Amino acid sequence: MDSVKALSIKRVTEEGKKEAEDTVTRELPLTIILNNQELVTLLCSPTGLNYLAVGFLSSEGLIKSKDAIKKITVDDQRGVVRVETGEDKEFVDIFKRFITSGCGRGASFYSATDATGQKIESQMEVPAQDVFTLVGKFQHRSHVFRTTGGVHSAALCDTKSILLFSEDIGRHNAIDRIFGECLLRNIPTDDRIIITSGRISSEILLKVARRNITIIISKSAPTDLGVRLADDLGITLLGFVRGKRMNAYSNDWRIVRDGK
Amino acid sequence: MDSVKALSIKRVTEEGKKEAEDTVTRELPLTIILNNQELVTLLCSPTGLNYLAVGFLSSEGLIKSKDAIKKITVDDQRGVVRVETGEDKEFVDIFKRFITSGCGRGASFYSATDATGQKIESQMEVPAQDVFTLVGKFQHRSHVFRTTGGVHSAALCDTKSILLFSEDIGRHNAIDRIFGECLLRNIPTDDRIIITSGRISSEILLKVARRNITIIISKSAPTDLGVRLADDLGITLLGFVRGKRMNAYSNDWRIVRDGK
Which residues, numbered 84 to 123 in chain B, qualify as contacts with chain A under a Cβ-Cβ cut-off of 8 Å? Predict the structure, then answer.
């Protein structure tokens, strides 16, 4: 399914209206069914539905590894992904916790490293110039794909290049789709960098922490809770990376001058 | 609780790092408890929590009117709002449907007017110039309050002025908070206009349709599903309203030239 759609619209100015054609981003309701239990319906862009579904389940702690997955069936016309793990019983319990929604998360996640169980200990260092170059590549790529306005982008990177790139109407989906692809294609995420076009809130921070991401970068702003969690979890959080400037909100020691 | 927080950060350029102070937006996990049932935890800006909770419950169809509410208790330090309706039994049922999440919504809402039960029949017309003026006021107001980057704004308007204004880290919350305030303060929403800084996706469209909003305006883009629903539901959807230009995606007959 195309991720954009052409529409007839009216362009309106003070002088009046004109017929025109515009391209809008598509939005698909995607229902994820885990072991025959209808789990959730995400509103998302209609691409990489298998990656998105698996990434979402992994973000929610419902799938731990690729080996746990017995079968994935994608119906992209109806917007349904079925994932089978053959571990019915276990998932019923987890499912119930999940279903009581953000509540459990609210209680446990926000106390600190409970969310991920471990602090990021990576000693990797990145020259500031490499960050600027990476974000430049990210913006170029987003710009090429973004004909329509309303999408968020995310990328998995090493210190030199973009490894995976994803766009979605939701900033959470864009990141989940990347982690789903990592899981299904056995792409490691340790010591990697995530770039997002969106705000870095606590949920985004916890998503990347679960995958041992070392550095998270945004062109946009973090929230105070995002910063506090990044600080606690040993993650380097960079915001407002624009041109040759950025703000380092936590663990800035990983960002070094060139040649150092 | 303040909606922003000052932090010590490092500003990084090619030349090196400097200590600096930055202001970030606060993010609060807000748990909504309806009739002693923990319903959901929203991540939101820490203002107008009573309005946000009531707006959320109303958007989800769990509260129909102000009269249904017996008591609201806000604990803004712990991030908890308790709403009591005295209708335990009924809400248990609705709660269960809700808890199976977007699924039910996915199935029913996207078939069309089911979501709201009625098409917007309002014959109101608005000069294009008034739309440009309103959005100018909205942007000015957002700009004044937006010191931190990461927030969305929403406003309830008549054709001439902003009646209610809300900012939040989530575009859904910003709109729900406005509708919560409308409900608690008996402010009518029929024949009103909603302006949002965010993308108009199907969920946003359905939120406003439930309140008989006639025109929805964004500086940003709609999705194809947002446009289709607006078309079906008789709502005028205006996107990319910038300066003296805009795109009319549906029911553009309500936008007229000045003096007509």
Answer: 99-103, 105-106, 110
pLDDT (tens digit per residue) in A48-63: 999 999 999 999 888 9
d(CA A183, CA B53): 37
What is the sign of the dihedral through the CA atoms of B130, B136, B140 and B146?
positive
Q: Are the CB atoms for B47 and B30 separated by under 8 Å?
A: no
User: A31-115, what's its fold?
Assistant: Ubiquitin-like (UB roll) (3.10.20)
Q: How far apart are CA A245 and CA B6, in angstroms?
A: 20
Per-residue pLDDT reduced to its tens digit, B213-241:
999 999 989 999 999 999 999 999 999 99
Fold of A126-256: Cytidine Deaminase; domain 2 (3.40.140)
How does pLDDT run across B69-96, given as a tens digit for each residue? 999 999 998 999 999 997 765 554 444 3
Q: Check if B56 contacts A (Cβ < 8 Å).
A: no
User: Over 50: is that where the pLDDT of B28 sits?
Assistant: yes
Closest listed residue to residue B127, CA positions, set A13, A127, A145: A13
Look-up: residue for tokens 């041992």? A212
Chosen from B47, B224, B253 to mutate, greatest number of chain A CBs within 10 A:
B224
- Annotated active-site residue A103? The verdict is yes
Our CA-based measurement puts residue B204 at a distance from the nearest CA of chain A, in whole angstroms, of 11
- CATH topology assigned to domain B28-112: Ubiquitin-like (UB roll) (3.10.20)
Question: Per residue in A217-232, pLDDT tens?
Answer: 999 899 999 999 999 9
For chain B, the structural domain boundaries read: 28-112, 126-256
> pTM of this prediction?
0.87
Q: Which two tokens stand for residue B186?
A: 């008996």
Whether the Cβ atoms of residue B1 and residue A224 lie closer than 8 Å to each other: no
Phi/psi for A37 (5° steps) reads: -110, 120
Provide ipTM, 2 decimals: 0.83
Q: How confident is the model at residue A86 (pLDDT cuts 50, 70, 90)?
A: confident
Contacts of A160 (CB under 8 A, 6+ apart): A130, A134
Inter-chain contact A100–B248, Cβ cutoff 8 Å? no
* Same fold for the pair A31-115 and A126-256: no
Shortest Cα–Cα distance, B64 to chain A (Å): 23
Residue pair B237/B205 in contact by the 8 Å Cβ criterion: yes
